[in-house]
């Protein structure tokens, strides 16, 4: 069993030109929280661009992908908060259809969250701007609901996006403590540079519980700067993150850093290794939205099957390669990973 927590969001994806990014002060490859100045972006997208509505939310993406690889439904349970509206119906239908058992908390106070996904440079860049809305109203009482409690008590692997640090650090820590007590694996993602900068305290409250940490090179670099690592060498950065204080000393922290088309860096047992990724000619890249989430999904699917880390990484790479060849975090057919 896999338990994930995060912000369920409906992605509004559009191919745009860079002027739109400039207009809203966004970077070509980033993920941010919407501020007041970003609110008109959502209507502008609908009015002026061809918008595709796709199920998103980082953790939910990862769990959907894990379910796809596992081919056995309801291994993964997702918690997060949504509104009572059509968007949450779309999200739930999609996630359930992909085999994820969603246990949403519902609020009447805000609509389901959305994420503007601005695709530029032929799909190689994606800039995300999340309007969390209902997702932000998640409260820790949800994990006291009997069926949620039961799912938490039965999980073998736990996963939180870094994004959820902006919503409920209390929930992350409480679930991580249950994982620790049960000697199960707790995993987290750096998710975006802004989290290491502006949610540093929350991130470092969670870090001692993190058995496996994921991130990409930009996120890892920001983390290194924020923590005065005094190096930008990715191997050294990954080793230093792995060596940060840890609650369960019997399980050394594994750190997995993706670097786009460059090799994946993996620190395990204090040793650093590289895994090359599959080369994709640029004409095959549709959009990189969801690539990192799919990577984690492929990894988790093998991890719950207790496969060695090498297999987890190979599956992670395979899965990410599939997802970048499609729009958003989507897939179809039987997974052909063996
Ligand atoms: C708190 N923020 C900024 C976010 C997100 C997010 N999911 C949760 N919280 N910002 C973007 N995403 C999701 O990331 C996926 C791609 O990795 C998007 O919904 C998108 O599906």
UniProtKB/TrEMBL annotation:
Details of cofactor binding: Binds 3 Mg(2+) ions per subunit.
Catalytic activity: adenosine + ATP = AMP + ADP + H(+)
Cellular localisation: Nucleus
EC top class, as a word: transferase
GO biological process: adenosine salvage; AMP salvage
InterPro entries documented for this protein: Adenokinase, Carboh/pur_kinase_PfkB_CS, PfkB_dom, Ribokinase-like
GO cellular component: nucleus
Gene Ontology MF terms: adenosine kinase activity; ATP binding
Protein name: Adenosine kinase
């Amino acid at each position: 069993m896999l338990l994930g927590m995060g912000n369920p969001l409906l992605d509004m994806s559009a191919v745009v030109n860079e002027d739109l990014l400039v207009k809203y002060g966004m970077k070509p490859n980033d993920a941010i929280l919407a501020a007041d100045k970003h609110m008109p972006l959502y209507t502008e997208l609908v009015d002026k661009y061809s918008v595709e509505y796709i199920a998103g939310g980082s953790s939910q993406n990862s769990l959907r992908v894990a379910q796809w690889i596992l081919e056995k439904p309801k291994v993964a349970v997702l918690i997060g908060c949504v509104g009572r509206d059509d968007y949450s119906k779309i999200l739930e239908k999609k996630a359930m259809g992909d085999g994820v058992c969603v246990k949403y908390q519902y609020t009447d106070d805000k609509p389901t969250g959305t994420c503007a996904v601005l695709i530029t440079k032929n799909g190689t860049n994606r800039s995300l701007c999340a309007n969390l809305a209902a997702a932000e109203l998640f409260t820790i009482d949800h994990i006291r609901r009997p069926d949620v409690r039961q799912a938490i008590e039965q999980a073998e692997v736990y996963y939180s996006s870094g994004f959820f640090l902006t919503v409920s650090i209390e929930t992350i820590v409480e679930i991580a403590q249950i994982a620790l007590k049960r000697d199960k694996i707790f995993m987290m993602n750096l998710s975006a540079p802004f989290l290491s900068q502006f949610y540093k305290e929350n991130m470092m409250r969670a870090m001692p519980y993190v058995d496996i940490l994921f991130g990409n090179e930009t996120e890892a670099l920001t983390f290194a700067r924020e923590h005065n690592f005094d190096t930008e060498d990715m191997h050294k950065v990954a080793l230093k993150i792995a060596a940060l204080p840890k609650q369960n000393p019997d399980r050394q922290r594994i750190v997995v850093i993706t670097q786009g088309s460059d090799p994946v860096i993996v620190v395990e047992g204090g040793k650093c290794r590289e895994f090359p990724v599959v080369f994709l000619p640029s004409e095959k890249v549709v959009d990189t939205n969801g690539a990192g989430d799919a990577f984690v999904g492929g990894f988790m699917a093998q991890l719950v099957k207790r496969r060695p880390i090498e297999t987890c990484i190979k599956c992670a790479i395979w899965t990410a390669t599939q997802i970048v060849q499609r729009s958003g975090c989507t897939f179809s057919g039987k997974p052909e990973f063996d």
